[in-house]
User: Which sequence fits this backbone?
């Protein structure tokens, strides 16, 4: 109690404004607690996000480097072209098994020539340090250019997943003791190869461009088919959903009478946005594959299914963008004699465009991460052939998608795929960030405020 | 608004083109996740060495794959169903009802099932009886059936480590569970004499007794895993004193984390399974829709390539991954070459 207040009759209720009564204190404490809860919630979510990103980055960053062995190789005509006439059709009869032999022999010969100590590693194990993907690529190379036969070519072959894992710290001599796929002596040799500059860890372009690979060669697996599949799907989803979504929204906002029927439609659109995505997968299987006879595992069917799922989101976003155009614009346009049609296409739609684009991009971004509906239409599969170009029916070819690749690698037995799976998540996150940033930029740049 | 017109016409073009079903030029395969790695290895090598495109292989489970195959005949149905257990009568009935009348059964090898614990834990030497006494709902004690009282492995057998029983076994939707039930649990049931007791209680009904044998305890000691082996491994990491059930090939790829247990004194390996010494193994199959041979390019070539010595033989890449090669592979090759349709099930 201060002196000034002492005389007032209601001193008990008031008191100093600076000091505060018990009630004010309680109120302030409540406010303080509320703030603390808020900050706590933010700290909790940020630390979860940080923890998640840190684990993914720690596991996945190594997928972007790949142990590669480079050495000069004589393409022996006695193995790849027995008749010696450079006839591609006859040369195609030599399978990858023959090329594997060629590659191992060349590797062993080069190690001997370069004077690298291979003590304790039998000749067969030397060849086994090279990925099985090497022979296949060499075969394609020779068949594409038969003039290479008899020449010395510089070949770059992936080292197997175990050698790669050793250079990344996943495989140790201790684990190699128990492992039937690698020996400690091979790891010693890997050290020698690194010292001699034959074994390097360059950026792994194959991870971004190459197709998926089987469990025997995790080192060769890549995201190429998945990225193309996701790209096709996103483009098709945009083509399918934007016109339909915008037309629906324009009709509902500008033309439709307000009655029970349009109310019902509105409620249904909101409900559709909340339907679990797997339901759309079942629908897609029944309608697009079984009834319409579209090809399984194709990005077209995937895009159709995901379009159904994304459409409600886009309609809701577009409607709110259209509603945000102020009535004064409409009234002015109508006032100078514009028709409804002119009003919509000359004034409302251009002004709503940034909002529509943002909504669409965000809808596509959530569709990009969708796996569940793709499971049912056969896109969660092992696909190694690239789909054809978009104008050659590529959308009808089998493909996978980025999140699908994450899922299928995570369930494989070789530990090297865990790193690949996290690497794929990083790629997926990069795409999502790009799309979200694009949405923010569009909004910042073109949105008009009234 | 030209962009709008453009997109609208693109939709129209696409809608028009979808009416024509395109001829499929790649083989479509679906089914068991145990067979999946083998099928992808073959598919990959097939795509590399043949003119045909690489077959598309899906997982999803044996039962789901067989159902998909039995959906009907035509380009929008799959050609091959991978399966880690034999096709059932109900599958064949479904197939027949949908016009899939000619099915080829191809057995291409065997798969071992192993029991493994954390690599830094103690060693286990199991027998089927141990597993029965550890996991069954009712066990024999002093000549009578009682509710399972065992809490730790050394209560089951003094020779086993003093460690609480906690087992991660495959869920009932897996083909692996069937093998675990018949080759381990029922075998253990018979070994301990519980089978005879159940049979006597059921009035001599063997099926009912077997059913009783396979009833596992529900107090959280035995945990069904419905996901892949990677999930079992993750659970094992979280519970270092547990024991998990894995496929041999999965174990061979994860020897840095897992310690394998012996079964009846035999260490599981490709050799011990091939010789029949290691008891817990099962055949792996794939089922081919014969009506698609000659329609889908490369189908016949793919199945012939799959069972060839280069692939499924004892020195082939499948054996390197953990497949136990079928000693009767030559007969399978002949049957595939002759496109023999499977005989009706008994």
Assistant:
């Amino acid at each position: 109690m201060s002196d000034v207040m002492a005389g007032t009759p209601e001193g008990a209720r008031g008191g100093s404004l600076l000091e505060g009564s018990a009630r004010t204190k309680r109120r302030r404490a409540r406010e303080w607690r509320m703030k603390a809860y808020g900050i706590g919630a933010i700290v909790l979510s940020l630390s979860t996000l940080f923890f998640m990103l840190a684990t993914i980055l720690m596991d996945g960053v190594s997928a972007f480097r790949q142990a590669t062995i480079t050495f000069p190789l004589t393409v022996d005509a006695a193995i790849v072209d027995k008749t010696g006439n450079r006839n591609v059709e006859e040369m195609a009869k030599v399978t990858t098994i023959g090329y594997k032999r060629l590659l191992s022999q060349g590797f062993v010969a080069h190690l001997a020539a370069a004077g690298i100590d291979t003590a304790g590693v039998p000749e067969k194990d030397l060849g086994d340090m090279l990925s099985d993907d090497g022979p296949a690529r060499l075969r394609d190379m020779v068949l594409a250019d038969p003039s290479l036969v008899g020449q010395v070519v510089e070949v770059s072959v992936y080292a197997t997943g175990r050698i790669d894992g050793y250079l990344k710290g996943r495989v140790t001599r201790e684990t190699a003791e128990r492992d039937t796929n690698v020996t400690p002596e091979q790891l010693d040799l890997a050290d020698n190869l690194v010292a001699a500059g034959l074994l390097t860890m360059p950026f792994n372009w194959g991870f971004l461009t190459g197709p998926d690979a089987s469990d025997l060669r995790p080192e060769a697996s890549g995201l190429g088919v998945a990225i193309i599949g996701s790209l096709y799907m996103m483009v098709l989803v945009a083509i399918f959903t934007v016109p339909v979504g915008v037309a629906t929204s324009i009709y509902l906002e500008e033309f439709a009478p307000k009655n029970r029927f349009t109310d019902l439609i509105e409620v249904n659109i909101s409900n559709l946005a909340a339907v679990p995505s797997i339901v759309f997968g079942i629908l897609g299987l029944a309608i697009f594959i079984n009834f319409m006879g579209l090809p399984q595992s194709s990005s077209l069917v995937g895009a159709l299914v995901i379009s159904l799922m994304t459409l409600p989101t886009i309609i809701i976003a577009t409607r709110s963008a259209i509603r945000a155009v102020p009535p004064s614009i409409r009234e002015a346009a109508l006032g100078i004699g514009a028709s409804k049609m002119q009003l919509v296409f000359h004034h409302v739609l251009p002004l709503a465009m940034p909002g529509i684009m943002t909504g669409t991009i965000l809808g596509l971004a959530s569709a990009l991460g969708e796996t569940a509906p793709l499971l049912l239409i056969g896109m969660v599969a092992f696909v190694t052939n690239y789909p054809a170009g978009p104008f050659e029916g590529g959308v009808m070819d089998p493909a996978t998608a980025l999140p699908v690749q994450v899922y299928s690698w995570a369930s494989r037995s070789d530990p090297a795929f865990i790193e690949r799976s996290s690497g794929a998540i990083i790629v997926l996150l990069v795409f999502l960030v790009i799309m979200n940033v694009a949405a923010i930029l569009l909004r910042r740049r073109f949105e008009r405020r009234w | 608004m030209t962009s709008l017109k453009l997109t609208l016409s693109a939709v129209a073009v696409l809608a028009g083109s979808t009416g024509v079903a395109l001829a499929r030029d790649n083989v479509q395969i679906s089914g068991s996740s145990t067979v999946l790695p083998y099928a992808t290895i073959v598919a990959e090598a097939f795509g590399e060495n043949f003119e045909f495109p690489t077959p598309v292989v899906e997982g999803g489970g044996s039962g789901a794959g067989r159902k998909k195959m039995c959906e009907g005949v035509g380009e929008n149905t799959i050609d091959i169903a991978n399966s880690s257990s034999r096709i059932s009568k109900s599958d064949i009935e479904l197939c027949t009802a949908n016009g899939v009348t000619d099915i080829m059964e191809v057995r291409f090898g065997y798969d071992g099932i192993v029991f493994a614990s954390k690599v830094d834990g103690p060693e286990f030497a199991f027998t089927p009886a141990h597993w029965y006494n550890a996991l069954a709902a009712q066990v024999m004690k002093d000549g009578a059936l009682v509710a399972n009282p065992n809490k730790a492995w050394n209560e089951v057998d003094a020779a086993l480590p003093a460690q609480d029983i906690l087992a991660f076994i495959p869920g009932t939707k897996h083909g692996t569970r069937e093998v675990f039930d018949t080759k381990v649990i029922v075998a253990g049931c018979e070994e301990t004499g519980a089978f005879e007791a159940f049979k006597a209680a059921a009035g001599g009904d063997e099926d009912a007794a077997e059913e009783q044998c396979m009833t596992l305890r529900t107090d959280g000691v035995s945990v069904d895993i419905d996901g892949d082996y990677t999930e079992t491994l993750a659970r094992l990491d979280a519970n270092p004193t547990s024991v998990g059930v894995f496929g041999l090939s999965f174990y061979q790829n994860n020897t840095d984390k897992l310690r394998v247990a012996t079964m009846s004194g035999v260490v599981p390996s490709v050799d011990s399974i091939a010789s029949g010494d290691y008891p817990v193994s099962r055949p792996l199959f794939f089922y081919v829709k014969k009506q698609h041979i000659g329609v889908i390019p490369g189908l016949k070539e793919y199945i012939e390539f799959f069972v060839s010595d280069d692939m499924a033989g004892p020195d082939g890449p499948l054996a390197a991954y953990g497949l136990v090669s079928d000693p009767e592979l030559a007969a399978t090759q002949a049957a595939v070459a002759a496109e023999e349709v499977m005989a009706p099930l008994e």
User: Anything to note?
Assistant: Residues 25-110+283-337 of chain B form a domain with the D-Maltodextrin-Binding Protein; domain 2 fold (CATH 3.40.190.10). Chain B is about 40% helix and 20% strand.
